[in-house]
Amino acid sequence: MKVYGLIGINLDHSFSPVYFENKFIKEKITNASYKLFPIHDIRDFKSLIQENQDLSGLNVTIPYKQQIIPYLDELDFHAKNIGAVNTIKFIKQNNSLKLKGFNTDYLGFIDSLLPILPRKRMNALILGTGGASRAVTYALKILDIGYKSVSRNPAGKNELSYNQLDKNVIENHQFIINTTPLGMHPGIEEYPLISYQYLTKNHLVYDLIYNPIETTFLRLAKEKGATIKNGIQMLEIQADYSWKIWNDL
After folding, report:
1. 92 tagged catalytic
2. Is domain 2-103 classified as CATH 3.40.50.720?
3. How much is the pTM?
4. What's residue 153's pLDDT?
């Protein structure tokens, strides 16, 4: 039996096990299972590997997408450039184990975005500067979409503070992406502090969060007529890419 799973914190409400269980049933895959592996310190990763010899692959979520990198033997080209990993492939050869990191988040983001991306030129605001934001930044560069990052502690000329998100900034950045965990279950009342009053029907607002399906961030944007998109499709697409990596498909 091949065992796959997810490492991170607060995993009880993750949709990943449901997605993979449904995939296994639909595709009649009988030699695989998908489990949750909550760890409260990245230093527990080594013992997790030792205690679960059947592991064949892992997904990585908040807050370990960057912290996991020193524990891996190799990164693929894209993960290295992004600086964050959400997929680990277990390569077992001659009684040795090599862990290789990949990033499929940027692929999930691009593939889920293209069907709703307007043809007109847009500039983006990326809320947050963590591991997930790195994949979004990478994707926007591929799509040739200009962007600025928004942080509580901005550093560098391409970063803004939340206090700087005035009418002019919101009007000139019609694509807004939340990569922070604000609003994620169980903290569903939380949301990024942006100037929602300046959103219009011309805005596209994307939340990487998928639980709840409609975050407060998306609800407030929808009330202003903006097009909204949650992270469930991105999750499914990146998970499918992970499966292909694990199984050399």
Report:
1. no
2. no
3. 0.93
4. 87
